[in-house]
Amino acid sequence: MSVKQFSVFPSLADSVFSDRFNRIDKLFSQLTGDNPVTSAPAYDLQRVGDNRYTLTVSVPGWKEDELEIELRGGQLSVAGHRETAAQETSGEEREENSSWIHRGISRHNFQLSFSIPEHMKVTGATLSEGLLNIDMIQEIPESEKPRRIPIAIGGPRTLEHQ
Question: Which helix (H) or strand (E) element contains residue 23?
Fold first, then answer.
């Protein structure tokens, strides 16, 4: 499971170290037999308005009923689960005498998890052409929005008693 933080500024570490991390992760995964962390689907986060965002997750070959989106306590989770039997027969039926020489297309379950800002709400999700689009809106209540306080000129005035 990967946990990501939404950030307005791109992380320098992501761009500088991502390739080296990916290579090291793949090496250890080959040694241990585990799935590499980088096998999680790619995603994009786009600002589409003042307070609207779209999270796009690349999920080619996944069906709507195999994907799950959950928002709980500031965590947005996107998961994909396939049953083993369904994996073997879903569009991959081969002749009885055929066998795989190489299977490089990823078919394993995944889970992405994102920490989202306060007051963020998921408004909908669509799956089209292998892309899962999750629409979100951040509605900050008026009481929590920054407000400008006017400054009076001349200092405090005192009332004289007559």
Answer: helix 12-32
